[in-house]
């Protein structure tokens, strides 16, 4: 544990440094800043999703829905009620968290593909609801919103985003390293044993949804403020799929992994932009390639540098692979 | 294995460095941007003009990319013939997958990294809305974007010019007017796509139908662009017994509703569909048989069926050359026409190409019919651009023009009655 | 301490346990033996509240535990291990034990999010306690290994460790030595006896390995077809003809070496 | 006759089998003893070709088996009855047994089904029951019966006594003897060293991936070191 | 009545798409999100045979299905085989990656312009009682039911079916019993893809042929399949039909634009009451 900690600290520090230095490096380019902002938005969302899927084992393929909710919350509260920024941003998390609670309640009973479909339905429904609830959401034409005066400049606002991102990384890091995070992983690994060790499984599952939705909501809120406009088209099911891709590509159950995934999936399309019609193919190839050749995600590249002395009593990765192979399909789900 | 991983890691870092380097380049160049109005605008050199385009190339509505192909074909044609004022046109097109986020990202890249002179034909209402403020602040000319929402052009914004399609509301007005006055519609039903394509014209019709005495709205049904099953809507329409049915949406659902109505025998009622859905014969193919017959629609471009028209011939010939595997549809033609308008404006701006000159040149368009559009007009107070439309009817597998051009006057909001 | 009174459990019409009554006295090691499918694990699952009996009562220190939810059982001081080890496979040995401490820790989400000193402090204490337990089981050198990479026997150890770390009053051990060879079995026997003597735990064991049962038990209950067929001290049970017939089988030379 | 010589198996960095040499002669019961993690199951997995050795030779009746797939090995008559029974829980007893005969082309499956029921009359009573609902002992019987349906020349048994009541363990060991008498060689991996040495002809003791000791079962039983390390005596 | 009938007919299309999905899932435990795109590519191939080489409909269908079998095998061998034992999420994301590749490639090759695709049987709709129905629709319904029955029987009563069921429960034990698991899985992918191809060819006349033709259909089919329990072939068909009819009812009585919202609400309610789906069968209680 301690070893892990000392290993992780320097490069966490590096990351923060990079974060802070980025605006200076890119100077006045709004384009590069905007890529950076989207990286932050997706990184927060991917981390929140990873908390739910990677750590907690609860599949959600409708997470983009929470992003939309966060964005709309900010837009509605700002334009319709005229609330101040400092109140609206946390509220976007709170309201999305409440929605997460509502989704989490029925989800507690479901697992695997069943949960996937329910969350997919949520992801599909949010844009439809936004489209139809004209009076609140502005329907197809969306809602414009303005940043407060003191943040109207992009190069000022980016520091808010950096600050939020760093704080959220820190909080999520604290959560997953804590007893709470351990309880989430325990639920993922064995619900029966988790219950026997005194973990209130339904409560914790719901809690996971709430926490995940809360931070995703804040990411959505930041997005709304950044673009200055929210619409039903912003986050589709496709975004949810990409988010899934991010956490798997980066490395499941790893906060740095989620960040790496977010960076790749935000930067890659920008690099391939000029190749007409190829963006999706390239992203697809990247996904397939990474999963085939780095099944534990890109984060496993970093872990290679950490030399691991296997204890004599321990089988290594190969065995892991085999013991997975032994676990049959239906048996894996039916928990036989 | 370790080595391979390391190389990957290095590659990953390189990406970052690359991004960083790009950044520095930008920051140093930025100060020398085209602020001085006597100098050429950004993206313009002695022999090249760079212009940008952001639209879906992949994803659910990737079909909009055919618009780019139309533009591209025309620019190739112009470049092969010496360009405009000695400058070749270079089109930089980015994929936004119909997502506002990406559209706004693209806008920033086009303007700051690629330093384009103008953007043309950006598709999608939401995408355009997301990037609107940025373009307006930067002063980049936005030429004929692919959205028919009124808010973009009315009230006019200095650097926002027109749209590639008929304004949704104007189109609705013209069609309702035609239906009532020429086709004798009394009991009207509306089907509309539940997004900008459908709701804007629907709202307009609802608003103005009161001004037509004796005409009533008997049914409204909605659908989503990706819908395929329309029996419920067809049933509802049948029960309302309308004499005219409007349908505002894109081609696939509009055709599918027609098929569903045909199936249950709701075939004699007049069916009027938006111009983006009914503009070309492709609808016949999709609907199959004589399902599509007698469908009314509107057109703002010269009909592709007009085989003898020299412009159409040139277009078809060039397009076949540039994109041999693609079908020349209405949407491709629309891209070609937008490019025509753009090139014409360039020509009219003269050699000293600045944003001001360029934007001012648009005000000289008065019912210009040099492009495929029936008429293009701009003025200080009119940024609609496309103000002329004619009605069409599907007959014997062809789209036939059945009225003269009907004109809309943005200043007064009036529409002229078609001359028979 | 733990009292079963006329407990009956049914699954889809099949009676798994019928009118079972027994009492585990404080500070004893109590064994339940019986053929496969006799309903032994069902008894455990009733105590863990995974199953609810159709009839009867289960009291623990005078409190009706049938009113509890599965996750509340441990708060009463009842911990258990599992027959086919139910560990958190992808977690390290240390983390598995720390999860075992879950019920004793405060879980204020805000102080956790901010990693306040109080959280840090209790976390340090937990880790210290986990190392104590690992020392007890002599698996300290495996602390940072993922349990799924361990051989079955070590997994069993971790499973037992996770049950005892929260200092329960009663420990349920379900086949603690299955898959262990006689030497390893002996080690576990010694451990169980130490738990009783040094820490005064009460232990309820299900086991097929008679060497362990004979060595550690104070009292044995034998079950067959969901019913109690015999009870008594290990020596009595070993000689009971009903038990020999149903469970032990004819005494052969092999068994004598045990 | 099955012969392994100088077999090395690696799991990643871990050297699991380090130059294993062993032979299973026709008609014999051979047992393989060793502590947790000594490499017993690995040996069986290697023989049934679930694992590829890095080095070494593996022959059956003089033919190398190193290139064969698991299903080929089954066809050649080596059948591995895995640890923890591994019956198909959602299939019925009958279906489980039929799976055992999956690789056979002949039509005598029905007869062999009856033969298996002769060994395990209990299975016949539960022929339509889902395997997942059987008790542990019955599942073990089913697992062995399933393996027998493939008409093995050599049967590899991994811990048949795991988690099973003493009386059933005795029954199962009796049946193993019977199976052997009826002409099947058996390679037995067992924690219960007493039982294993009791029924086998020859035995190997594995330590850290190599054979530390071998000999006739009777001799090993009297070996002091074996008694101390594995019999707990 | 017409609403329900039309819903049933369209439900059959969902059911067809769901059948292949469930077949693959039932055997290999992979929820194949690329299923729709593979179906789309198969349909495009049949279209090439139809329009470019002028084959008759049935011949084109046969050739396309042949292609689908090979296509399924190639996808399995090149990609899916290597993640057979990986976590489910990896598999799911992998198929999402394939989805993007196939969709993009089809777009590059054939363009995104929707094209019409012929129906298996032509002919104007006729009236059956108060319901309008066409020959082709009857064909679709019949085909769905026949295929469902066929594969149901295959799973239940043949040796190959037994092997498939065994392999899905315990890969290692199956290998040890002499089942070539990779062969069985390959077969499931081949047949599943071919089933998808059939679904594609039944869908194309309705949604029109384009790289995006299966997107919406597949999502609803997936939902329908899950509603049916996701590992039951009759469940897939029933689930598809329920969703089809329910969608239409919502369209008619509530609001068409909210049908997706309501459909998923229905699924949430059903799954809340029966977490294993309608035909999911009781979960085996874990023995601890």
TrEMBL record, chain A:
Transmembrane parts of this sequence: 33-53, 85-105, 112-131, 157-176, 207-229, 241-268, 275-293
Single annotated GO MF: branched-chain amino acid transmembrane transporter activity
Chief place where the protein resides: membrane
Coiled coil: none
Topology in the lipid bilayer: Multi-pass membrane protein
GO cellular component term of the entry, any: plasma membrane
Alphabetic keyword roster: Cell membrane, Membrane, Transmembrane, Transmembrane helix
Localization (cell): Cell membrane
Domain of life: Bacteria
Record PANTHER family: HIGH-AFFINITY BRANCHED-CHAIN AMINO ACID TRANSPORT PROTEIN BRAE, HIGH-AFFINITY BRANCHED-CHAIN AMINO ACID TRANSPORT SYSTEM PERMEASE
Protein name in the entry: Branched-chain amino acid ABC transporter permease
Organism placement in taxonomy: Bacteria, Bacillati, Bacillota, Bacilli, Bacillales
From TrEMBL, chain C:
Record-linked PROSITE patterns: ABC_TRANSPORTER_2
Xref: SUPFAM superfamilies: P-loop containing nucleoside triphosphate hydrolases
Signal peptide: none
Single GO biological process annotation from the record: L-valine import across plasma membrane
GO molecular function: ATP binding; ATP hydrolysis activity; L-isoleucine transmembrane transporter activity; L-phenylalanine transmembrane transporter activity; L-valine transmembrane transporter activity
Keyword Nucleotide-binding: yes
InterPro entries in the record: AAA+_ATPase, ABC_AA/LPS_Transport, ABC_transporter-like_ATP-bd, BCA_ABC_TP_C, P-loop_NTPase
Domain ABC transporter: from-to ranges: 2-250
GO cellular component: plasma membrane
Keywords: ATP-binding, Nucleotide-binding, Transport
Pfam families named among the record's database cross-references: ABC_tran, BCA_ABC_TP_C
Keyword Iron: no
Name of the protein in question: ABC transporter ATP-binding protein
Native source organism of the sequence: Neobacillus rhizophilus
Species lineage: Bacteria, Bacillati, Bacillota, Bacilli, Bacillales
From TrEMBL, chain D:
PROSITE patterns: ABC_TRANSPORTER_1, ABC_TRANSPORTER_2
Entries under CDD domains matching the protein: ABC_TM1139_LivF_branched (cd03224)
Domain ABC transporter: 2-233
Keywords annotated in UniProt: Amino-acid transport, ATP-binding, Nucleotide-binding, Transport
GO molecular function term, any single one: branched-chain amino acid transmembrane transporter activity
SUPFAM superfamilies: P-loop containing nucleoside triphosphate hydrolases
Keyword Repressor assigned: no
GO biological process: L-amino acid transport
Gene3D superfamilies referenced in this protein's UniProt entry, alphabetically: P-loop containing nucleotide triphosphate hydrolases
The family this protein is said to belong to: Belongs to the ABC transporter superfamily.
Protein name from the UniProt record: ABC transporter ATP-binding protein
Species: Neobacillus rhizophilus
From TrEMBL, chain E:
UniProt xrefs under PANTHER family: ABC TRANSPORTER PERMEASE PROTEIN, BRANCHED-CHAIN AMINO ACID TRANSPORT SYSTEM PERMEASE PROTEIN LIVH
Molecular function via GO: transmembrane transporter activity
GO cellular component, one term: plasma membrane
Alphabetically ordered keywords of this record: Amino-acid transport, Cell membrane, Membrane, Transmembrane, Transmembrane helix, Transport
Transmembrane segments: 6-25, 56-79, 91-111, 131-155, 176-199, 219-246, 253-273
Protein's cellular compartments: Cell membrane
Membrane topology according to the record: Multi-pass membrane protein
Broad class of where this protein is predominantly found: membrane
Family of this protein: Belongs to the binding-protein-dependent transport system permease family. LivHM subfamily.
UniProt-recorded name of the protein: Branched-chain amino acid ABC transporter permease
Domain of life (superkingdom): Bacteria
GO biological process: amino acid transport
């Amino acid at each position: 544990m301690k070893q892990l900690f000392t290993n992780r600290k320097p490069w966490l520090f590096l990351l923060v440094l990079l974060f802070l230095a980025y605006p200076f490096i890119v100077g006045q380019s709004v384009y590069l800043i905007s890529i950076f902002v989207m990286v932050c938005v997706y990184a927060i969302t991917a981390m929140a999703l990873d908390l739910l899927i990677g750590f907690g084992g609860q599949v959600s393929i409708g997470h983009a829905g929470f992003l939309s909710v966060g964005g709309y919350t900010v837009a509605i509260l700002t334009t319709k009620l005229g609330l101040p920024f400092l109140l609206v941003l946390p509220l976007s998390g709170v309201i999305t968290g409440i929605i997460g609670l509502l989704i989490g309640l029925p989800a507690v009973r479901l697992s695997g593909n069943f949960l996937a479909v329910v969350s997919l339905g949520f992801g599909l429904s949010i844009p439809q609801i936004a489209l139809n609830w004209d009076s609140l959401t502005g329907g197809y034409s969306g809602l414009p919103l303005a940043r407060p005066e003191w943040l109207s400049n992009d190069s000022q606002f980016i520091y808010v985003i950096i600050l939020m991102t760093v704080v959220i990384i820190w909080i999520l890091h604290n959560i997953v390293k804590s007893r709470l995070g351990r309880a989430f992983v325990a639920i993922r690994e064995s619900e029966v044993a988790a219950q026997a060790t005194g973990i209130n499984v339904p409560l914790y599952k719901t809690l996971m949804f709430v926490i995940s939705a809360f931070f995703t909501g804040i990411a959505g809120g930041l997005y709304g403020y950044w673009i200055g406009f929210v619409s039903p088209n912003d986050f589709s099911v496709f975004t949810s799929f990409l988010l899934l891709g991010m956490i798997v590509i980066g490395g499941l159950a790893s906060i740095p992994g989620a960040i790496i995934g977010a960076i790749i999936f935000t930067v890659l399309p920008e690099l391939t932009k000029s190749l007409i019609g190829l963006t999706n193919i390239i992203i697809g190839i990247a996904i397939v390639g990474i999963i085939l050749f780095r099944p534990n995600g890109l984060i496993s590249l970093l872990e290679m540098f950490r030399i691991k002395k296997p204890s004599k009593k321990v089988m290594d990765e190969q065995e892991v692979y085999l013991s997975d192979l032994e676990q049959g399909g239906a048996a894996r789900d039916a928990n036989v | 294995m370790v080595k391979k991983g390391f190389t990957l890691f290095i590659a990953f870092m390189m990406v970052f460095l690359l991004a960083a380097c790009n950044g520095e380049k930008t920051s140093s160049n930025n100060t020398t941007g085209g602020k001085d109005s006597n100098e050429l605008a950004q993206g313009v050199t002695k022999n090249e003009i760079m212009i940008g385009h952001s639209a879906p190339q992949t994803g659910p509505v990737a079909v909009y990319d055919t618009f780019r192909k139309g533009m591209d074909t025309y620019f190739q044609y112009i470049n092969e013939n010496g360009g405009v004022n000695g400058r070749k046109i270079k089109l930089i097109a980015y994929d936004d997958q119909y997502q506002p986020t990406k559209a706004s990202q693209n806008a920033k890249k086009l303007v700051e990294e690629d330093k384009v002179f103008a953007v043309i034909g950006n598709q999608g209402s939401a995408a355009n809305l997301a990037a609107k403020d940025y373009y307006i602040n930067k002063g980049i000319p936005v030429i004929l974007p692919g959205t028919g929402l009124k808010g973009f052009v009315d009230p006019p914004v200095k650097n926002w010019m027109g749209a590639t399609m008929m304004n949704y509301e104007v189109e609705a007005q013209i069609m309702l007017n035609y239906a009532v006055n020429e086709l004798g519609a009394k009991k009207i039903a509306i089907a509309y796509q539940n997004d900008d394509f459908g709701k804007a014209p629907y709202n307009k019709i609802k608003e103005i139908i009161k001004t037509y005495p004796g005409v009533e709205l008997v049914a409204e049904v909605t659908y989503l662009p990706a819908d395929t099953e329309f029996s419920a809507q067809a049933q509802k329409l049948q029960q309302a017994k309308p004499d005219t049915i409007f349908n505002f949406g894109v081609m696939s659902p509009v055709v599918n509703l027609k098929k569903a109505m045909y199936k249950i025998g709701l075939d004699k009622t007049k069916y009027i569909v938006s111009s983006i859905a009914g503009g070309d014969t492709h609808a016949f193919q999709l609907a199959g048989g004589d399902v599509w017959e007698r469908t009314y629609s509107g057109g703002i471009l010269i009909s592709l069926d007009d085989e003898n028209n020299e412009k159409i011939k040139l277009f078809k010939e060039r397009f076949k050359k540039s994109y041999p595997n693609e079908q020349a549809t209405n949407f491709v033609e629309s891209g070609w026409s937008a490019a025509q308008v753009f090139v014409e404006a360039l020509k009219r701006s003269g050699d000293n190409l600045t944003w001001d000159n360029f934007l001012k040149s648009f005000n000289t368009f008065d019912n210009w019919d040099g492009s495929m559009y029936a008429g293009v007009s701009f003025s200080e107070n009119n940024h609609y651009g496309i103000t002329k439309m004619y009605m069409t009817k599907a007959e014997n597998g062809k789209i036939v023009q059945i009225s003269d051009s009907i004109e809309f006057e943005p200043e007064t909001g009036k529409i002229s009655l078609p001359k028979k | 301490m733990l009292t079963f009174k006329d407990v009956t459990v049914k699954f889809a019409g099949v009676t798994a346990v019928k009118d079972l009554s027994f009492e585990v006295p404080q500070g004893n090691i109590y064994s339940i033996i019986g053929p496969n499918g006799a309903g032994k694990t069902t008894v455990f699952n009733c105590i863990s509240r995974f199953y609810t009996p159709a009839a009867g009562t289960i009291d623990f220190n005078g409190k009706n535990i049938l009113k509890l939810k599965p996750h509340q059982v441990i708060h009463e001081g009842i911990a258990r291990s599992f027959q086919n080890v139910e560990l958190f496979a992808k977690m390290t040995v240390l983390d598995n034990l720390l999860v075992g401490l879950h019920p004793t820790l405060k879980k204020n989400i805000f102080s956790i999010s901010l990693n306040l000193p109080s959280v840090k402090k209790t976390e340090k204490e937990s880790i210290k306690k986990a190392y104590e337990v690992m020392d007890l089981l002599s698996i300290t050198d495996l602390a940072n290994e993922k349990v799924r990479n361990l051989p079955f026997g070590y997994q069993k150890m971790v499973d037992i460790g996770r049950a005892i770390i929260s200092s329960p009053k009663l420990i349920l051990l379900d086949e603690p030595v299955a898959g262990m060879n006689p030497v390893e079995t002996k080690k576990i026997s010694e451990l169980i006896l130490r738990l009783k003597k040094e820490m005064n735990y009460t232990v309820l064991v299900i086991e097929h390995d008679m060497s362990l049962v004979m060595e550690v038990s104070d009292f044995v209950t034998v079950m067959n077809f969901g019913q109690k067929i015999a009870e008594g001290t290990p020596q009595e049970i070993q000689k009971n003809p009903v038990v020999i017939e149903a469970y032990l089988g004819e005494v052969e030379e092999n068994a004598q070496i045990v | 006759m099955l012969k392994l010589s100088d077999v090395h198996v690696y799991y990643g960095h871990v050297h699991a089998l380090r130059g294993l040499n062993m032979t299973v002669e026709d008609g014999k019961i051979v047992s393989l003893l060793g502590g947790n993690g000594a490499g017993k199951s690995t040996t069986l997995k290697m023989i049934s070709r679930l694992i590829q050795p890095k080095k070494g030779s593996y022959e059956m009746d003089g033919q190398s088996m190193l290139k064969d797939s698991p299903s080929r090995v089954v066809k050649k008559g080596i059948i591995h009855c895995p640890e923890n029974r591994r019956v198909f829980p959602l299939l019925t007893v009958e279906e489980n047994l039929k799976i055992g005969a999956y690789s056979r082309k002949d039509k005598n499956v029905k007869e062999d089904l009856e033969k298996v029921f002769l060994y395990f009359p209990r299975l016949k009573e539960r022929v339509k029951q889902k395997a997942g609902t059987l008790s542990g002992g019955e599942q073990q019987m089913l697992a062995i019966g399933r393996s027998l349906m493939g008409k093995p020349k050599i049967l590899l048994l991994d811990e048949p006594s795991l988690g099973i009541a003493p009386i059933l363990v005795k029954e199962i060991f009796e049946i193993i003897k019977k199976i052997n008498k009826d002409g099947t060689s058996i390679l037995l991996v067992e924690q219960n060293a007493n039982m294993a040495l009791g029924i086998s002809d020859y035995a190997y003791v594995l330590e850290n991936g190599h054979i530390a000791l071998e000999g006739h079962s009777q001799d090993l039983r009297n070996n002091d070191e074996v008694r101390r390390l594995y019999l707990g005596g | 009545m017409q609403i329900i009938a039309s819903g049933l007919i369209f439900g059959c299309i969902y059911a067809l798409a769901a059948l292949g999905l469930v077949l693959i899932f039932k055997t290999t435990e992979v929820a194949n999100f690329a299923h729709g795109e593979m179906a789309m590519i198969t349909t495009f191939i049949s279209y090439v045979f139809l329009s470019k080489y002028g084959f008759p409909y049935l011949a084109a269908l046969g050739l396309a299905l042949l292609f689908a079998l090979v296509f399924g095998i190639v996808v399995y061998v090149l990609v899916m085989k290597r993640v057979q034992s990986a976590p489910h999420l990896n598999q799911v994301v992998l198929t999402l990656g394939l989805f993007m590749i196939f969709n993009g490639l089809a777009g590059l090759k054939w363009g995104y312009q929707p094209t019409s695709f012929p129906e298996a049987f032509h002919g104007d709709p006729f009236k059956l009682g108060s319901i309008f129905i066409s020959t082709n629709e009857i064909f679709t319904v019949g085909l769905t039911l026949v295929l469902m029955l066929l594969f149901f029987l295959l799973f239940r009563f043949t040796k190959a079916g037994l092997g498939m069921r065994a392999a899905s429960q315990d890969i290692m034990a199956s290998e040890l019993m002499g089942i070539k698991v990779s062969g069985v899985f390959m077969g499931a992918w081949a047949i599943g893809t071919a089933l998808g191809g059939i679904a594609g060819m039944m869908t194309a006349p309705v949604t029109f042929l384009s790289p995006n033709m299966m997107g919406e259909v597949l999502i609803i089919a997936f939902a329908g399949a899950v509603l049916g329990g996701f590992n039951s072939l009759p469940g897939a068909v029933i689930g598809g039909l329920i969703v089809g009819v329910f969608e239409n009812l919502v369209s008619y009585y509530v609001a068409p634009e909210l049908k997706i919202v309501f459909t998923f609400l229905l699924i949430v309610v059903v799954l809340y009451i029966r977490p294993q789906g309608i035909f999911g069968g009781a979960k085996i209680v874990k023995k601890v």
